Amino acid sequence: MKAGIGKIQNLKKGKIKKMSIEYETVIGLEVHCQLKTNTKVWCSCDADYDNKEPNTAVCPICTGQPGALPKLNEKVLDYAIKAALALGCEINRESYFDRKNYFYPDSPKNYQITQFFKPYAENGVLKITTNSGKEASVGIERIQIEEDTAKSIHTASETLLNYNRASVPLIEIISKPEIKNAEEAYAYLNTLKDRLKYTKVSDVSMELGSLRCDANVSVRKKGETKLGTRTETKNLNSFKAVVKAIEYETNRQIEVLENGGRVVQETRLWDEENAVTKPMRSKEEAMDYRYFPEPDLPAIIITESRLSNVKDEMPEFADEKAKRFINEYKLNEMEAATLSSEQELAEYYEEVVKVSDDARLAANWVLTEILRVLKEKNISIEKFSVEPENIGKLIKLIKANTISSKIAKDVFEILLSENKDPEIIVKEKGLVQITDNSEIEKIVEQVLAENPQSVEDYKAGKSNALKYLVGQSMRLSKGKANPKMINEMILARLEG
After folding, report:
1. In degrees to the nearest 10, what's the CA dihedral of 453, 454, 455, 461?
2. Torsions phi, psi of 67, nearest 5?
3. In this structure, which topology does domain 437-495 adopt according to CATH?
4. How does residue 10 score in pLDDT terms, banded at 50, 70 and 90?
């Protein structure tokens, strides 16, 4: 915690730690996830709101004009079902829409269409593993389909509203109050994000705003069963911000209780610059929103046929994929976990395997050279310039002894800037490996003649001399000589 921020900073670390031992935190997370459909949830307006001129992707339906009637986008329902299945939820075959009434500039209707009384999905569970290795399960209370609000852009003097985002499809994922600390919250969010990303129903990007999280936090004395008064913290623009906000709010509430006060149920904002939560407004209850059934939309009926079709489209998730990689490709657990951590990376790897027909070498290249470049350039595999087919062809050239492993790395560097078939690069650059015995013999004889001391060193028992001579031979051939043939021929000369 930063110095000079609130009364918490006046507490000694020892006191905070002592108090924390006496209390336990109860956390529930509300995650809003934008679905990546082409059009909005109730109308045919373009859902790609950021790439349109502000307030141009709108119509009477998504702005709530009198007489305009909404109609559910069928793709939204399919995507929502897929997301719920990915999170282990039960699908309600019949569910309903409701109106959540509130007055705020970003809501053109002055109400939001959501699901309150009967959502489409409930009772999910997400198994998580924290960074410290602790395993836990977090229940998902419900998932509901709803619409987004307009996008607010805050300037120094005013707030601008882009109604292009109004009625972009959302699902709200509400966890049960079972998360015990910030570390578990972080693991839950990462696991949830990974599962949803694998389904491809959303970009799940907090930077782009397609994934947003509100944190409900309360504390209570250990041993108590009654939940403490909770606060809801908004404006959390990263998972790290969620962690910091939970930690701050936990300590703040403990201090309030220890000083004889009471925690106020309210909505708070996260101040990233000062790393504190600040009061925003009193926390509304359900009755404050005057929920009632949406009169303009029929019930959602999910047929067995529809559910079956969506189940057939479900992907192989990371944990399942990792197990298969171990069994099918003989990778170790660490290799399999890394390669399956992102769907796009896993797909890239398997395409390299398909072309090269060598799972081992494919794993080596992806885990070393390719991940190195991704880290250096700070990009994802989706933005990597070299196609997996070309990496597969590069491996095939190595296996065929057309090029050496050293030359292959040189070709790889060329591929990073030239989108060519590696076979063409090898031919154009004259990089074909030397395997002719007579040429190899000439190289070896020259190196041995130029390095008599290394020859004597080897005969005197200094084995490193062999490596030196092999290295000199490879240098002389500009890396093109077959290293195995070089090694064997030098050894034969030295031992002969």
Report:
1. 110
2. 90, -10
3. Arc Repressor Mutant, subunit A (1.10.10)
4. very low
